[in-house]
Amino acid sequence: MADKPNPPECPGRIVSNDETTFEQMDGRAHHWYLSPELTPGANMLVVRVQVPVGGGHPFHHHPNMEECLYVLSGRAEQWIEDKKYEMGPGDTIHLPAGMVHATYNAGDEELSFLAILSPADSDPPGIVDVSGEKPWRSLRPV
Amino acid sequence: MADKPNPPECPGRIVSNDETTFEQMDGRAHHWYLSPELTPGANMLVVRVQVPVGGGHPFHHHPNMEECLYVLSGRAEQWIEDKKYEMGPGDTIHLPAGMVHATYNAGDEELSFLAILSPADSDPPGIVDVSGEKPWRSLRPV
Questions:
Q1: CA distance A35 to chain B (A)
Q2: Residue A11 pLDDT exceeds 80
Q3: How far is A26 from chain B (nearest CA, A)?
C-alpha cells in the first residue's frame, strides 16, 4: 500500500477523520475536511458538524454558495426560512444560495451532520448571521 | 411542524433516506439524493453508494466534475491513479476533475460512502470508464 498522498503536492487528497481541522463554535463544533485554506484547488467546502444536546446553528444564509446537509447521526430540527422540519440519519436537505436556514439538535444524543457548500471560490461573505434580526430572532422559543 | 417542502415548487428541498432514487449497478448500488433530473437547480450531485463484500467501482474519471467521497461505514480500498490507499468511517478523499480513481470494498462488511460531485451542470460526459484500458485493467489482481 502506498504512503498517503501529501497535499498540496499531490492533487488527489485524502483527509482522514483524525486530520480534520477543529473549530469550536458557540453551540457546535466544526471538523473541516475541505476548505480554501486547507485544500487549495478544491472548489467545495466539506465540514462535519457536531451539535451537543441543546446546541445548534442559529438562522443564517450563504449569499453565494449552495449547501447540502447530510445527517450522520442523531436528530435535527431543521428550519428552512420560517418552516420547521425534522431530519434523521441518511436524510439530506439542499439549500440554494441565499436561503435562510438553521439547524438544532432535536434529540437526546449528539447530532452529527455533514455540510457541503459550493462553490468555494464564490464572492464573500461566506455566511451571514441573521439570528438577531426580524423575523428570525423570535421564530424559535428560547 | 410543517409539512415537508415539495420539490420543485419549494426551492429548499429535503430528500429523506427513504426517498432516494435507487440504481443497481454492477458491484454496487446507488441511492441518489441530488441529481439534475431529481433536483433541478441544485448544482451538485449527491449519491450514497453501497458496496457489498467483493464489490466496487472500477477505474473511471469525471472529466469535468470534481468529487469528494466520505466513508460512512466499512472499509474502502481507494485508488488514486496507480496508487492504493485504505479509508474508514469519517475519512474523505477529494479528486479533481479528470483524475482516475476506483473504490472497492476492503472489508468483511458492506462499505457505504457518500459521493458529492460538482458542478452538476458541467459538460458531458459525467463519467468515463477506463477499467478496460492500460494500465488500469491490470493494476488490481482479479
A1: 11
A2: no
A3: 23
How far apart are alpha carbons B119 and A43 in whole angstroms?
9
Helix (H, G, I), strand (E, B) or coil at A85: strand
Are B90 and A17 within 8 A, CB to CB? Answer: yes
- Minimal C-alpha gap between B103 and chain A (Å): 13
A11 burial type by CB count under 10 A (0-12 exposed, 13-18 middle, 19+ buried) = middle
* B139 near A CB under 8 A: no
Which residue from A14, A43, A118 is facing B87, i.e. has the nearest CB? A14
- C-alpha cell, B16: 429523506
b/e B39-64 (16+ beta carbons within 10 angstroms → b): beebbbbbbbbbbeeebbbbbebbee
- The better pLDDT of the pair A11, B109 is held by B109
The pLDDT tens digits along chain B (142 residues) read: 455 554 444 478 899 999 999 999 999 999 999 998 888 889 999 999 999 999 999 999 999 999 999 999 999 999 999 999 999 999 999 999 999 999 999 999 999 999 999 999 999 999 999 999 999 999 997 6
Q: Which of A110, A39, A119 is nearest to A73 (CA)?
A: A110
B27 with B57: CB under 8 angstroms? yes
Please indicate whether, in this complex, the C-beta atoms of A101 and B12 are within 8 angstroms of each other. Answer: yes
CA distance A135 to A102: 13
- Would the CB atoms of B15 and A94 count as touching at under 8 Å? yes
Q: Do A44 and B114 touch (CB under 8 A)?
A: no
Q: How far apart are the first and last CA of chain B?
A: 53
